[in-house]
Design a protein that fits this description.
By secondary structure, this protein is an alpha/beta fold. The protein folds into 2 domains: 93-291, no CATH class; 306-484, Rossmann fold. It has helices spanning 2-22, 75-79, 93-109, 114-125, 146-163, 175-178, 211-216, 249-255, 270-273, 277-286, 293-301, 306-319, 342-354, 387-398, 423-437, 449-458, and strands at 127-128, 137-140, 166-169, 227-228, 231-234, 260-264, 325-330, 376-382, 406-410, 441-445, 463-465, 478-480, 494-495, 500-501, 511-513, 521-523. The strands form 5 sheets. It has a 6-stranded mixed sheet, with helices on both faces. A 4-stranded parallel sheet has the order 3-2-6-5. The longest helix has 21 residues, at 2-22.
Length: 529
């Protein structure tokens, strides 16, 4: 009886897969043209999206995702597994349980519930009286570029899990068009009439409402019976020593008394949470494999909207699906000037060929004897400029490879400059991050949050292209990452107990300095000198 019931439940999913196999979509890209202008590669043959997919794969990602969502309202939520090879990283049972408990909390305390309305009334009153509300909140403020926003939102969500707060998201000008709702039944978006929403843009390091300034001016103390109705946490790159006390347990005890916390940050601050004794045991249970934090939270939270998902899937089917291997190369140069730069072209070649990610070419011969088993390798390159793609494309078009492998090089767009305030630009950026995460091998650029997102979603340890000094090709050109975790670019260097400076990259073995930013911090599972 039970097996019959299971078969009935699985039948719709099997029918959908059978339909996809028999009715593969055309490789024409006409409906994506408005979104991927300046396409730079011709389409490959019609593809079979499911060629690498076992239909028995778990669409809930090992229990990471909740069941019961309307599949049509967010196609990417349950379809993403069809485009990705099986990954070895499974969420811990404790994390799965924690997420289900959070969803219940969000359902009970989310926007427009009686608990939320009561908390908003307290916010309007101007004072924070402990115990008058049964729900506490942390509000994430829309700030910085898309890569930063994805990483910071994951950081704030982890903080919400650790402190049993409800996460509410400032939608800015594009969040609703980029991502599906991650939680069942209740929105994660802050209602438009939130009392202090109009103040978000003006919040900065000098704001009187910031935790650091409240401390400096003796406006809040642990001994106070009544506190302000909210506190602003400035955790951006320009925060000062008082702001950084957020990462001390004594200060967390004080912050715990506030119903409303409002956070503005451009940092992936997860590594410093791992240095806090009050969170240590919980983090161990949530993430036994410590380098999977963003990998799991990112796949739980960030499901591309149907609009963005259409861009992703059309491009994947047209250019990547039939390849035996997919290599992602993300190029982000912070030098002034338009580029492309010859030293970067040389660096990309030195890394990809030196690490045997791509084969060498034979420049002396017009053709080579065909290999008995040649591989087709698709290179997906993302960059704001066109020249790096054009250089690699010409190399593999004009010369045969010494292995006989066939190399196709593709670049979806070249926007020339970052336009983070433009929703259309961000749709393309998200689609390209996601496409990079679907590759088998990844090369990223130092300092780039764009690359951090791709590697985390894909469960990939990338080769990192070192940042150049004096516009010369670094030697070595790249290094394999210790971990797929992103780097915290501006961590505090402070011992909360000793109240003195300390190298926080040498406190515990699982929080180390980053490969691409010597002062940054990242979480690793195992560290070897």
């Amino acid at each position: 009886m039970r097996s019959s019931k299971t078969l009935l439940l699985a039948l719709p999913f099997l029918i959908m897969l059978t339909f996809l196999l028999r009715h593969r979509p055309s490789d024409r890209f006409t409906d994506a043209t408005p979104f991927f202008n300046n396409l730079t590669t011709p389409p490959l043959l019609e593809v079979d999206v499911l060629q690498h997919v076992d239909i028995a794969e778990d669409k809930l990602l090992g229990g990471l995702l909740a069941d019961g969502f309307d599949g049509q309202s967010c196609l990417s939520r349950y379809q993403s597994i069809l485009y990705r090879k099986a990954l070895p990283y499974k969420p811990s049972p404790y994390l799965v349980s924690k997420l289900r408990k959070y969803e219940d909390l969000h359902k009970r305390c989310g926007p427009n519930t009686p608990s939320y309305n009561k908390a908003v009334e307290q916010l309007k009153s101007g004072s924070n009286v402990v115990g008058t509300t049964d729900c506490k909140y942390v509000v994430w403020v829309w700030y910085s570029g898309l890569g930063n926003r994805i990483l910071t939102l994951a950081s704030v969500f982890l903080y919400a899990l650790l402190t049993e707060r409800v996460l509410l998201v400032d939608r800015g000008n594009d969040m609703a068009s980029l991502f599906c709702e991650p939680f069942p039944e209740r929105s994660w978006f802050l209602p438009m009439n939130f009392p202090i929403a109009k103040m978000f843009n003006s919040f900065d390091q000098k704001s009187a409402e910031s935790y650091g300034n409240l401390l400096k001016n003796n406006m809040i103390k642990a001994s106070m019976g009544s506190l302000p109705s909210y506190v602003y946490l400035h955790l951006a790159h320009d925060y000062d020593d008082h702001d950084k006390l957020f990462f001390c347990d004594d200060d967390q005890a004080l912050l715990k008394r506030f119903t409303w916390l409002v956070v503005k940050t451009d940092n992936y601050f997860v590594p410093s949470l791992f240095l806090m004794p009050s969170f240590e045991d919980e983090l161990k249970k949530l993430f036994p494999n410590k380098e999977t934090i963003f990998h799991h939270l990112g796949r739980y939270l960030f499901h591309p909207s149907n609009h963005v998902w259409g861009i992703v899937t059309r491009y994947y089917k047209a250019y990547l699906a039939r390849a035996d291997e997919r290599i992602g190369i993300q190029v982000r140069i912070f030098d002034k000037g338009p580029g492309p730069y010859q030293y970067v072209k040389d660096q990309i070649s030195a890394c990809t060929i030196g690490e045997k990610l791509l084969p060498e070419v034979d420049t002396r011969r017009l053709a080579v004897n065909p290999s008995k088993n040649p591989k087709v390798k698709a290179v997906l390159m993302t960059s704001l400029v066109y020249g790096y793609y054009e250089n690699m494309k010409n190399i593999y078009w004009e010369h045969p490879t010494v292995t006989g492998d066939i190399i196709g090089v593709h670049q979806p767009s070249h926007e020339e400059q970052q336009r983070s305030e433009k929703p259309l630009h961000n749709m393309k950026a998200l689609a390209e991050m996601y496409l990079l995460s679907l590759t088998d091998v990844l090369v990223t650029s130092a300092w780039s949050t764009f690359g951090y997102v791709a590697q985390g979603l894909g469960g990939l340890k990338p080769w990192i292209l070192y940042k150049s000094e004096n516009q010369t090709t670094p030697n070595p050109p790249c290094q394999r990452a210790m971990s797929m975790e992103p780097c915290f670019h501006a961590p505090p260097f402070y011992d909360c107990k000793a109240k003195e400076g300390i190298d926080t990259g040498k406190v515990v073995t699982h929080v180390r300095h980053c490969e691409d930013i010597s002062w940054g911090l990242k979480v690793v599972d195992r560290y070897t000198e």
